[in-house]
From TrEMBL:
The lineage of its organism: Bacteria, Bacillati, Actinomycetota, Actinomycetes, Kitasatosporales. Residues 11-71 form the HTH tetR-type domain. This is TetR/AcrR family transcriptional regulator. It comes from the Bacteria. InterPro entries: Homeodomain-like_sf, HTH-type_TetR-like_transc_reg, HTH_TetR. Keywords: DNA-binding. Residues 34-53 bind DNA. The keyword DNA-binding applies.
Length: 250
């Protein structure tokens, strides 16, 4: 009977288990989440948890997926503006705010784990990639889209985890702002109107809009994409250092 209780009210065993786990996680961290505690809070027996989620890791993954979904729902309500860099700032601040408001859930969501990323994590990366592409299309990206996305993701996650680890009374509210602006300075240029495009910004911008063209065959597009990627990589600061070292014979 436990599997059918309250289903008409939209609170079947799966929903109750997820809600109970999220509450336990928020109140006491991962250590508070056990089969016994979840079962008692959700009014189900252990076999029901195992049948629905496999094991505790499966349950935590499902809770993390729910957290990602809620996070993405908040992010997608942000209306795009004419300035994609300003939109990146807003997205960064929302990311940090979500982590600090849900520290235990954020830690579960960002646990290193083998295998493919959960679908919601893939969706989050797709959201960030789309935002980076808008910056590239505006001619304001100084590195490749892939490097910019990786840097934003790594820096945002690292900043959030650092702030979570700090005692609340010692948290520096400016740390996130400084990290955010350092990343933006590293990956973006001034507005194209203020400065002419460099080879890298032009290559990255053209690479971003290349899929829209119908003037090239699929093979020609692949070749053009390879050339543009090589230009962007050659102009990358770290690649430039390597090139100078090779020229000096070091």
């Amino acid at each position: 009977m436990e599997d059918t209780a309250n289903t008409s009210a939209g609170s079947g065993p799966r929903e109750r288990i997820l809600a109970a786990t999220a509450e336990l996680l928020a109140a006491g961290g991962r250590g508070a989440v056990s089969t016994r505690a979840v079962g008692a809070a959700a009014e189900v027996k252990a076999p029901t948890i195992y049948r629905l989620f496999g094991d505790m890791q499966g349950l935590l993954d499902a809770v993390a997926a729910e957290g990602f979904t809620a996070y993405l729902k908040d992010k997608t309500v942000l209306e795009p503006t004419a300035d994609p860099v300003a939109d990146l700032r807003a997205g960064w601040d929302l990311h940090i705010g979500f982590g600090l408001a849900n520290p235990a859930l954020y830690l579960v969501m960002n646990e290193p784990r083998p295998g493919a990323a959960p679908p919601s994590a893939v969706a989050g990366l797709a959201f960030l990639s789309a935002l980076v592409r808008r910056i590239a299309e505006a001619g304001r990206l100084r590195v490749s889209e892939e490097r910019a996305t990786d840097l934003i993701q790594a820096s945002g996650r690292g900043t959030t985890l650092t702030l979570i680890a700090m005692p609340e009374q010692r948290r520096d509210p400016e740390l996130s702002t400084l990290a955010r602006e350092a990343v933006i300075a590293a990956i973006t240029t001034d507005t194209p109107a203020a400065h002419p495009p460099t080879p890298v910004t032009a290559a990255v911008a053209l690479r971003a809009v290349l899929p829209r063209t119908t003037a090239l065959t699929a093979r020609e597009q692949d070749l053009m994409q390879e050339w543009l990627d090589r230009i962007a990589s050659a102009q990358d600061p770290s690649a430039s250092v390597t090139s100078r070292s090779d020229a000096d014979g070091t």
